[in-house]
Amino acid sequence: MTGELRIGLGLWSGQHGDPTDAVALARAGEDAGFDSFWVTEHHGMPDGYLPSPLPVLAACAAVTRRIELATGVVLAPLHHPLRLAEDAALVDRLSGGRLLLGLGLGYAEHEYRAFGVDPATRGARLEALVGALRAAGTGEPFSAPGLDLHDVRVTPAPARPIPLWLGGYADRAVARAGRLADGHLVGRGEPGIVSAASRILETVRDPADPTFVRGVVVTCVLDAPGGGAAEARAGFARAQQAYEAMQRGRQVYAGLVTGAPTVDVQIGGDADEVVAGLRAVVMSLAAWSRVHLVIRLLFAEPDLGTALTRVATFGERVLPHLRLPET
């Protein structure tokens, strides 16, 4: 087994739900024993997908005390770098040093058009942004000419150096994370995708390096009373069809999954089946000293009460077994 295993709840996206639901879910995740709560970002989606992760995490900070608050991911090239650094610093301070800032490129062409950003520049902007955010975190003046920042300063500074993760599937994106970031987040935890990322990361990062974290998002349905599992499965399938269509023809999952992308959940069933499935994911990452699973726990949206019940049930029936060594 891995040396350190942390388990997060997410990715909360706001689809079909009230943004205030995130605050209740973050609190429920902390009460259930999760280590982190994750939100993500898209723009202009008809299903109400969350467009502004950091303000939501600021609200979550006010009702939690322990749980890490994470973005998985901020679509970094769409944000002004200084504004992003300032917002991140404030969320980190408001939370007492609990922000984990995951950054990514995104894939939706309409988002780049809406923000007037040339997609051809996105990789270079992301690389420059990692260095700029680290410099911004010192509270001292800095410059980042590649981002047109000259002698600027972020005050107040964050409570501590904010961990920076990068997401992505393409070889270049994975290698970038290994070279520059504190962690890499695989947004779709299928075996082929996880193993492909491992092969690339091992060329630039020692798996035993305690300063680097392997993050994997696993889409999960827990079949148990009171959780609306059937409705959750059906709703996820409907939503994913639209997002898979948006990615069609792009280098997102190409060569990493067998056949066409599927909208099926990755792990589902009763508590024992879910525990077994998640343990298998962890075992596939046994070479890495630090692993962070992000459980994309599917709910019967937009029923907040049912979602809170499901989080509590997961905390009671699944989490304790993941934290114990396999017998």
Describe the protein.
The protein is an alpha/beta fold and 327 residues long. It has one domain: Alpha-Beta Barrel (TIM Barrel). Helices cover 39% and strands 19% of the residues. It is built from eleven helices and eleven strands. The chain has helices at 21-32, 53-61, 81-94, 109-115, 122-136, 171-180, 191-201, 229-247, 271-284, 304-317, 319-322; strands spanning 4-12, 36-39, 68-75, 99-104, 142-144, 149-152, 164-167, 183-186, 213-222, 267-269, 290-297. The chain has an eight-stranded parallel β-barrel, surrounded by eight helices. Strands 5-6 form a two-stranded antiparallel sheet. Helix 3 links the parallel strand 3 and strand 4. Helix 1 (21-32) crosses helix 2, helix 1 (21-32) runs parallel beside helix 10 (304-317) and helix 2 runs parallel beside helix 3. It is globular. The N and C termini lie close together (12 Å). The model is unreliable at 253-261 (pLDDT under 50).
CATH class: Alpha Beta
- Main sheet specs: 8 strands, parallel, barrel
Uncertain spans, ≥5 residues at pLDDT below 50?
A: 253-261
Distance between the termini: 12 Å
Domain module tally: 1
What structural class do helix, strand and pairing data support? alpha/beta
Helical coverage, percent range = 25-40%
The 3D shape can be described as globular
Give keywords:
globular; 327 residues; alpha/beta; eight-stranded parallel barrel; TIM Barrel
